[in-house]
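Many introductory courses stop at the sequence. We go one step further.
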Amino acid sequence: MKGVVLAGGLGTRLLPLTKVTNKHLLPVYDRPMIYYPIQTLVNAGINEIMLVTGGNSAGDFLRLLGNGKQFGLRHLNYTYQEGEGGIADALRLAEHFADRNPICVVLGDNIIERNILKAAEAFRAQRTGAKILLKEVKDPQRFGVPALDGDKVIRIDEKPKQPASPYAVTGIYFYDAQVFEIIKTLKPSGRGELEITDVNNAYIRQNELTWDKLEGWWTDAGTIESLFLANQFVAQTGANRMG
C-alpha cells in the first residue's frame, strides 16, 4: 500500500494566518501541521508516500521535509496541483505514483490521537473497494455525513443541514486502483470542484465500501477554532500514538 497526503488549497478559512504560507506549514503545538498526516501513514506501515500540494508555498515543503528521512523514509515524492479543483482532483495527480497499488489518502489538516494500523491491515485483507473511517462529532453538518442502515453505509451527504447520523467521514480514505477511473467520471459540484464524497458514493453504489470507527480524538485544523483545538489536544495527549 502507498500513501498520499493532500496538502493543497488556499486555506481561506485560516486567513490572515495563511496570507503568506500554506496552511499545512502552520505549527500545531511543537511541529508543522504536515508532520502529523505523514506520521499517520508511517505508523500504518506505509513507507512510499506522495505529497500533493500547490500554490506559492510548494517549495517550502521541499525545504522542510526534504526526502523524508526524519520519518524513516528513503524517499518522499511530490507533485503539484494547479488551481483549486477539489480533493478528488488533487488525488487524481497520484495515479502514476500509485501504479495500480492500493492507497491510503490522508488530508493534510487531519490530526489523530492514535493510529490507523488496524484499519490499514483490514483494508489489506479486504484487497478491493474502499474503506472510510468515521468519528462521532458534535457538529456533523460541517463534514461528509454517512447514512447508515445497520452496519452498512448507504450514502454519504456532503455538509447536510439535517445530518442522517452523528458521524463525520474523517479525511482518511483507503482505495483500490479503480479510484482513478472513478475520478475520471466525476463532474464538478456546485463549488466547481471534484468531490471526494462523490468518489465514496460511487464505491457505495458498487457495494464495495466498508468503514471502521476511528479510535481516540480526531480533528481537522482547517479553521481558526479547529486549529486552536488541535494545539490543545496535541499538547495534552500527544498525537499519532501507537500504544
